[in-house]
């Protein structure tokens, strides 16, 4: 592997963060409306990494590229470039995400698996790219994986036009190309590559999964949107404005945090700003995150 991208090593597995865009300050109050400045201000460990000096939480969009054995696995695909989106922060982006992905050793044609933790707009955008006026799979040789429950849910509900547009440009082309695999994920998890397991964490969406990575006696968990921000470690009851089943999301967040607290497990947040990863520690009746800085050495 050759990379100067931020990465962490779990046993023999390398997890690289592929940055897309830092989200604007207004994202936090919209997404987690009960994470008020007063709540954030009472948690000094959130600053300066996870919150600004004025107690506004910081959020980012990135994906994780996992090199495990001889396989290249991408976890979520972000917002994407050149897409018509209702959210101004996501609309018609033009980032250098593809160059960063290639710099990490993940040429699109070499990716083996794309794990979609759920089918929200900011997790599926780079599923496709525009070619000759059409949206085509960005990773033509990969299998795209998502929980069957997730697919079935969105197939059964009436979607508004912005979400329909997202499915048309970022999800349906992958399905129509025969690259999308719908998986039944049991409560104990489903291994999709050596030491890479999908673990159901529903609530944000019915088929939301986290990704557990185990290698050489070490473990990491990629959150997807089961946890949006480290403030939810101290206050797991804080729900997102777009959680479909908020009470279920709370229960699964509690369970996830309790299962990894004080174990040395690396928690990597799909929307956590730098340093993005850390270990979870019990803090009275709650938890806090102790950041673990990535390496950027060229290996």
UniProtKB/TrEMBL annotation:
Keyword entries, A-Z: Hydrolase, Metal-binding, Zinc
Claim: DNA damage is one of the keywords in the record: no
GO molecular function: hydrolase activity; metal ion binding
Domain of life, per lineage: Bacteria
The keyword Hydrolase belongs to this UniProt entry's keyword annotation: yes
Domain Metallo-beta-lactamase: 60-271
Family: Belongs to the metallo-beta-lactamase superfamily.
Protein name per its UniProtKB record: MBL fold metallo-hydrolase
Organism: Amycolatopsis rhizosphaerae
């Amino acid at each position: 592997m050759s990379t100067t991208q931020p990465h962490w090593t779990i046993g023999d597995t390398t997890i690289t963060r592929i940055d897309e865009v830092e989200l604007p300050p207004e994202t936090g109050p919209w997404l987690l409306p009960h994470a008020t400045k007063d709540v954030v201000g009472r948690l000094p460990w959130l600053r300066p990494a996870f919150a600004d000096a004025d107690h506004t939480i910081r959020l980012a969009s990135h994906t994780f590229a996992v090199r495990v054995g001889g396989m290249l696995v991408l976890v979520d695909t972000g917002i994407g470039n050149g897409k018509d989106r209702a959210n101004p922060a996501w609309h018609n982006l033009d980032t250098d995400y593809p160059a960063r992905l290639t710099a990490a050793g993940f040429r699109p044609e070499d990716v083996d698996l794309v794990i979609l933790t759920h089918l929200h707009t900011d997790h599926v955008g780079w599923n496709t790219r525009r070619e000759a006026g059409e949206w085509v799979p960005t990773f033509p040789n990969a299998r795209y994986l998502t929980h069957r429950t997730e697919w079935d849910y969105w197939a059964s509900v009436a979607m508004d036009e912005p979400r329909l547009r997202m499915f048309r440009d970022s999800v349906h082309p992958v399905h129509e190309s025969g690259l999308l695999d719908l998986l039944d994920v049991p409560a104990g998890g489903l291994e999709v590559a050596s030491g890479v397991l999908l673990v159901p964490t529903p609530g944000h969406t019915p088929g939301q999964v986290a990704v557990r990575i185990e290698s050489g006696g070490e473990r990491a968990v990629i959150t997807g949107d089961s946890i949006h921000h480290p403030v939810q470690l101290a206050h797991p009851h804080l729900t997102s404005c777009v959680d479909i089943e908020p009470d279920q999301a709370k229960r699964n967040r509690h369970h996830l945090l309790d299962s990894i607290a004080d174990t040395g497990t690396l928690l990597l947040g799909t929307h956590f700003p730098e340093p993005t990863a850390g270990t979870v520690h019990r803090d009275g009746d709650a938890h806090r995150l102790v950041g673990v800085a990535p390496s950027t050495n060229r290996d």
